[in-house]
Amino acid sequence: MDHADIRETFFTECEDLLEALHDGLARIEYTLCIGMDAETVNTVFRAVHSIKGGAGAFKLDQLVRFAHQFETTLDALRAGRIVADPALMGLLHRSADQLSDLVQVARAGNDAACPNLLCLTHELAAAAGEDEDNGDSDAEDFGFSPLSLDLDLGGSDLTSGSNGGRYAIAFSPTRALYACGNDTSVLLRVLSDLGRMEVRLDRSRLPDFDALDWQESWLDWQIILETDEPEHQIDEIFEFVEDLCRLEVSPLPEDMTLEETEVGHAPEPPASTVAGPLKKPADEGRGSAPRATVRVDLDRVDRLINIVGELVINQAMLSQCVQDEGVPQRSPMRGRLDDFRSLAREIQASVMAIRAQAIKPLFQRMARIAREAATSAGKQVRLVTEGEGTEVDKTVIERLADPLTHMIRNAVDHGIETPELRASAGKSETGMITLSAAHRSGRVLIEVQDDGGGINRPRVLEIARSKGLVPENAVLSDEETDELLFMPGFSTASVLSDLSGRGVGMDVVRSTIESLGGRVGITSVPGHGTRFSISLPLTLAVLDGMVVDVSGQTMVIPVSTIIETLRPCPADVHGLGSGGQVVGIRGSFVPIVDCGAVFGYRDPVHTYDKSVLLLVETGRQKLCALVVDAIHDQRQVVIKGLETGYGDIPGIAAATILGDGRIALIIDPEGLVELGASPHGPGSEL
Amino acid sequence: MPLTILAIDDSRTIRELLREALVRAGFQVHLAIDGVDGLEKLDAVRPNAVITDINMPRMDGFGFIRAVRAQPEQSALPIIVLTTESAAELKSRAREAGATAWIVKPFDEAKLVSALRRVTAA
Known about the structure:
Number of helices of chain B: 5
CATH class of the largest domain in chain A: Alpha Beta
Distance between the termini of chain B: 11 Å
Strand order of the largest sheet of chain A: 14-18-19-17-16-15
CATH architecture of the largest domain in chain A: 2-Layer Sandwich
CATH superfamily of the largest domain in chain A: Histidine kinase-like ATPase, C-terminal domain
Radius of gyration of chain A: 37 Å
Shape of chain A: elongated
CATH class of chain B: Alpha Beta
Strand order of the largest sheet of chain B: 2-1-3-4-5
Number of strands of chain A: 22
Largest sheet of chain A: 6 strands, mixed
Strand content of chain A: 15-25%
Number of strands of chain B: 5
Oligomer: heterodimer
Number of domains of chain A: 5
Structural class of chain B: alpha/beta
Structural class of chain A: alpha+beta
CATH architecture of chain B: 3-Layer(aba) Sandwich
CATH topology of the largest domain in chain A: Heat Shock Protein 90
Number of domains of chain B: 1
Order of helices and strands of chain B: EHEHEHEHEH
Radius of gyration of chain B: 13 Å
Largest interface: A-B, 62 and 60 residues
Helix content of chain A: 25-40%
């Protein structure tokens, strides 16, 4: 590992430390009423401390300085000198955010000054009870530097004018010197490196063997050292033991010698160095050991996933061959093949799990978003997270960041009321936003719930009408009204705040979620709040597909989009004036889209007695009936992207390889319906 | 035979920096992530000297040193404390616990090697 690698290690480690920091602060805040847990405070302190330590090694001065002040304030908290009230917690949260920013800035390699830095540093100093006038407020003097204690052996001689000479050294160790890992023979050997040395061992105090306490110090030394090195070099050798021995160093006239010499006789250390079995201290081994992890390049994981995908396809092909060869059901080959299949599936699941990550870091980012949004909107908001440990595919997490940010901002801006309004409604002045994640029947369910005023439906309708999104006299149910929020170009805030109104509407949120194979829904109770629910597939590498036949072509439709399948009675199918057709299902009419015709495989058919209709949801809760010729089966398929080879193909999401080796296209129902409805699409030529 | 050093620090960054510096100086290096891990590795590694951080989870540097010194046969093991603070109090606590020497972080390689040399005569 070279230095650049270690630098990268530092920044990766910072991610973990920052996570621990945010986590710890949240925990402190959460347990404020029942008193602080000392270990949590210590963990938070340690995270900042470690960032400072590493930053120091890479000379990231700005980071070191801020971390140091942060650490000082946390130390005051740890020592009980200051109290964790809401104001301090707010400051600590902001400081943690600032620290994250500084790490990011340092990682990017630019040392752009952060505007709030000095201000925040002063706030931290003030909170720690430090006197502002005591040097810290002075920007010049601010470069705190506890890190440069000079222990340098090779440094220039500052302490004594003399360079070299002869010295008499009297050295009498105490018992304690031996007790803390010092070895007189080592000290003497290091001393002898300074020049020519005569050593006399004084063992006059050594008792008879019977009376010998082996831990006691019995030996003294008189040394004459002839050296070219300055005197402070001698002192430095004894630096760590100066309080553990009697040491006298004095310059010696030229002609004096020791009468009796036992030169170079380095005595055996009095303590045995044999290590015995080690007992683990009972009460200090508490706490769980950190989980061992390996950091792997993402490319490698993706390659592995790809190969395992091939393996699963290959296994399916093999099964198909065995089937085609007419191998009897009960033959051993079938049994082995079944084992192979379950193993392949298991490998696939395990490999997929590598890509899965806890959603926690994303949630932590949202906590910050909520804090910032609340501050600028002048509201009091508390974000509570649940199910942070829920594991989701890394790509899903990455692509979820923007929509989730928008939803949190929305919840703060439009959901939570002002403190005055909340108080008058009999609610706590602090609004609560709950962000939760959970695994639900093979999918990930993420919910953003606020306890605000709920959707103002009359206002929503009014805006939708004024913008021409709905006809003037349309009568909409509550659910339909709520759905208007997802319409492109809709924004309820009469004055756009600088947060939500960034040109990203809920329609973009919905389309992003849908591009991940997910769905988003909304429920709202006036006066009690709003809940957005996002449901996502666990992974983007495989999907549950329904294998269908369209004009002799085998195609796959994501099961997640299919609501039901049906064979229509001819009487339920109605023609429209424009040439389109609808099917009546339980009293409502659903437009029919013929896959074969839209993809240009065949001319549109008009009777569907031999076809199957798949009722799919194509976003914005619009239903559509896709016409296919037959359903083969339902299975998990490995998604093979087409973007690199073919670009974006309307109506087609991706491809997969089936068990018999044939390639099947995976249909994107929403794209298909748009294609069918577009003026140039084959479906509307009628 | 190169001398063997056991380096204990909860920060991965510092561990790697220590490893880099010590290997370059010709030592054989083993790493541990905290006091508990250090104690566990002590037997297997049989180091000639230990370098340890102070503030660590599970068991801090003082706890580690006390646990080592509690065994008479380990009283001669040189233990160097690695600390960010130069506060005299911290040093006296380290001394009290039985530390042999101390280095201030961020350590420079020369100081590290010099301190090791002074406790092992390497």
